[in-house]
Amino acid sequence: MRQAGPRRVVFAPDSFKGTVSAADAAAALARGWLAERPGDEAVLRPMADGGEGTLDAFEAAVPGAVRVPVDVRGPYEGAARVSSSWLRLPGDTAVVELAATCGLGLVDPLRPLEAHTAGFGDAIAAALDAGVARLLLGIGGSASTDGGSGALVALGARVTDASGSPVPLGGGGLGVATAVDLTGLRPLPTGGATVLGDVVNPLLGAQGAAAVFGPQKGAAASDVALLEANLDRFAGLVPGGRRLADAPGAGAAGGTGFGLLAWGARMGSGAAVVASAIGLAEAIAHADLVVTGEGRFDAQSEAGKAPTEVARLAAHAGVPVALVAGVIDEGADPDASGFESSVSLTSLAGDPRSARSEAVRFLEAAGAALARAR
């Protein structure tokens, strides 16, 4: 990296979930950097990996992208309907984001047994009704552990109990399921459906949806055991489900990856697809430094979330990359993931609460700290 003269710095963070969008995080980091080095060039490329902010990233990057409003059922029984949207890209491709229809930010308090993905399925159905030829399905940031059953039901599947009645939506309701009929599922669009995921976990087991992600969605230990048993039951009822349960990414979004695979969708790297859409590799090729980040950097980050994809592209271009995270888990190693330097907002703020409540302020401070260090 050049040590003198103006530098070109690419800011490509993911969202800091529940606090700051990817676009606002990129802008805050750039403001902090330019306060220390006003002569530098800041290039903003907010990232996403299939979770919160995926629609925003595509909308900002793809000329001609159009938001299409959609009204979907709420994320748990009794919840108000959700006014959301999907994104239509030129060429009749639809981007549908789970986080915007039934994500964690829409469930307060958390309902680990009742939360479901039916609203996500409603949005997918709306895109199909609009005649799209291809689906890109972002599934990060879910509030449920229902194996994607809610989305499948919204698309025409039947999940029934011993009396032939539909089971309650949500991971808890799968415990009474005795049959899964997928014959009424709507067909995939002609161009297929690609799942934009950010993890490679299987559906079941110690690395599965309930065990790894259930606690993040409010599940106590007893809830995790129940959800694991119910997902196992569901997988046994879905045609070919035992094989699909072991597929990388089947456990993503509380098992929504599994449900979409059962529909016929294929798994893809959310971060890689978004990076391609926003021209990130081209921006990095002419940079002196790349700054990326996310709310929590942990072992899951190293499995393919947005910062790791950014680091991969930077390494390929021979450009150093720095990480800014709300918190860096003790078990995570940014250096091993290719980051030349790293900054924790929690360390800057002194405590996690301040880091979250004043995230923009500390993102600016992180950008300034990185600039001073260079």
UniProtKB/TrEMBL annotation:
This is Glycerate kinase. One of its GO terms (biological process) is organic acid phosphorylation. Keywords: Kinase, Transferase. Gene3D superfamilies: Glycerate kinase, domain 1, Glycerate kinase, domain 2. Belongs to the glycerate kinase type-1 family. It comes from Agromyces protaetiae. It comes from the Bacteria. InterPro entries: Glyc_kinase_flavodox-like_fold, Glycerate_kinase, Glycerate_kinase_RE-like, Glycerate_kinase_sf. GO terms for molecular function: glycerate kinase activity. SUPFAM superfamilies: Glycerate kinase I (SSF110738).
